[in-house]
Amino acid sequence: MNDTELLWLASSAPQINDYPFKRVPKIAFMFLTKGPLPMEPLWERFFKGHEGLYSIYVHSLPSYNANFSPSSVFHKRQIPSQVAEWGEMSMCDAERRLLANALLDISNEWFVLLSEACIPLYNLSIVYHYLSRSRYSFMGSFDEIGPYGRGRYDERMAPLVNLTEWRKGSQWFEINRKLAVRIVGDTTYYPKFRDFCKPACYVDEHYFQTMLSIETPHLLANRTLTYVDWSRGGAHPATFGKADITEEFFKKIAGSDTCLYNSQPTSLCFLFARKFAPSALEPLLELASKVFGF
């Protein structure tokens, strides 16, 4: 299918909420990558023993030919892809493509966007429990005053999107099936963001965040589940290498924030983290059973 056909098919949602067959809801893990998945061995351990509770989708550059072994959970999980450029609408196109492919599996209920530099911070049982019990989807959507928030707004987006409705949030999200269908089926907001949110307006930080905050604000937890460190400044977050990987480092992440979960305060705010360099893999595998529980 081409993208138009794919999005059309994926946007079809059953109108009766009770499924007439046995259905075990699954988490769709959607990896948006350029090429290889250097953290593959860590993810393999994360997924092991939880068959039937997850699906995997990989969107890489079209020129990249993956050589995952037949025994890998990533084997033949690449979807037909297009070039996705940072900050461009092609990045959101890739995310919609991932969502649309995942929606074709009626069992997928929760959709998590990840990069090749992401890692899980807990075992899959904890992640599944956290997502399945949540009344909200985890997408940050903030009214940020200043050049990197409201300063990116283009008044030509009005009256569909007014300045007071303009939102910003992390690219890395988790949403439920209802919101995923809204995103792949959108033909209203897409043209406005395509035409009027171009670098230095980075559309992957504004499009879904603004649209969903206008249409379904009551369904958003208004935060991301993916930890990043912006303390070093610049356009990109900190990258963690071999020397950073210690128990103390992950204790710091676990205690870095407090948040709301189903309207109750909690210290368990992040299920994933990024950005991790390939050199971090070996110490991560050594710490995984003790720190992450898998």
Automatic annotation (TrEMBL):
How is this protein annotated for GO cellular component? membrane
Q: Where in the cell is it found?
A: Membrane
By its UniProt entry, which Pfam families does this protein fall under? Branch (PF02485)
A GO molecular-function annotation: glycosyltransferase activity
Q: Per UniProt, which keywords does this protein have?
A: Glycoprotein, Glycosyltransferase, Membrane, Transferase
Q: How does it sit in the membrane?
A: Single-pass type II membrane protein
Protein name in UniProt: Uncharacterized protein
Q: Which organism is it from?
A: Prunus yedoensis var. nudiflora
